[in-house]
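Lecture 7 notes: from sequence to structure.
We start with the chain below.
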Amino acid sequence: QVQLAESGGGLVQAGGSLRLSCAVSGSIFMFNAMGWYRRAPGKQREWVALITSTGTTNYADSVKGRFTISRDNAKNTVYLQMNNLKPEDTGVYLCNAQAGLNFWGQGTQVTVSS
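Predicted structure tokens for the same chain:
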């Protein structure tokens, strides 16, 4: 059973930074790609960033230049470094892993105050 565990969320002022972590219970190499999504209050889930097994990254336009996704294969962990946070970045951030099927974590809350 694959499990994804997010951590690192919290309350931060606009302009601040947070680093989210997603720890995988198994080997990170089993996944073709891993990514982050977010769900803001009253809105649909939104894709944020993606990193493939070869290290290729891609970002939503709304976070490009502010967020960085990375992976530590030795630790089976994916990170999302979030800088210059804005109130509209508020939401539950969910880790996603793709291996034919989609796997999801429970999410971590990020709240950005103005």
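Points to note: The radius of gyration is 13 Å. The CA atoms of residues 58 and 64 lie 9 Å apart.
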